[in-house]
Structures are given as structure tokens and as C-alpha cells.
């Protein structure tokens, strides 16, 4: 599965997470979205732009990632293919 967001992460903003952590002391709330890959393989694409230009349906997204040796992340070219 692949998920995409126009934000910096699929996780809650770190300022919010830090506040919750200070209140609860629960380390399980830190980077919750990133832990999803422990349950099932997935790819998260962050900081996408132009999503507001897409129609509500009728398109397919193709992603062309850069493979960076030794890295856990890299950039991708995400392309929307509109249905006829």
C-alpha cells in the first residue's frame, strides 16, 4: 500500500506529540504513523504538491522514486494519470 500527504509527515505535528508525551510519558505516541510499517509493508510519500488540482476521482497515481544507496528515504516524482 502507498499513502501520500501534502504534509511533512503522516504523523501528528511534533509539537502536539511532544505535549502529549510530556503529559503521558508514553513513548508509543512518538512517530505513530511511521510505526505502521511494522504491521504491514507500506510506502509513505510526504510533501506532495498540487493535490488540490486533482479531481475527486478518476485518476491513477504513478510514483517514480529515486533509489539512494544507504538511505531510508528519498524523493519521488509522483504523476497523476487522468482517466478519459
UniProtKB/TrEMBL annotation:
Under the heading InterPro entries, the entry gives: KFase_sf
Q: Which domain of life is it from?
A: Bacteria
Q: Which Gene3D superfamilies match?
A: Putative cyclase
Q: What GO annotations for molecular function exist for this entry?
A: arylformamidase activity
GO terms under biological process: L-tryptophan catabolic process to kynurenine
SUPFAM superfamilies the record matches: Putative cyclase
Protein name as it appears in the record: Kynurenine formamidase
At the highest ranks, the source species' classification is: Bacteria, Bacillati, Actinomycetota, Actinomycetes, Micrococcales
Amino acid at each position: 500500500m502507498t499513502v501520500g500527504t501534502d504534509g511533512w509527515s503522516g504523523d501528528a505535528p511534533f509539537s502536539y506529540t511532544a505535549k502529549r508525551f510530556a503529559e503521558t510519558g508514553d513513548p508509543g505516541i512518538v512517530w505513530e504513523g511511521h510505526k505502521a510499517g511494522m504491521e504491514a509493508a507500506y510506502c509513505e510519500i510526504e510533501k506532495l504538491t498540487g493535490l488540490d488540482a486533482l479531481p475527486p476521482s478518476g485518476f491513477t497515481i504513478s510514483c517514480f522514486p529515486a533509489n539512494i544507496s544507504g538511505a531510508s528515504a528519498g524523493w519521488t516524482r509522483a504523476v497523476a494519470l487522468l482517466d478519459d
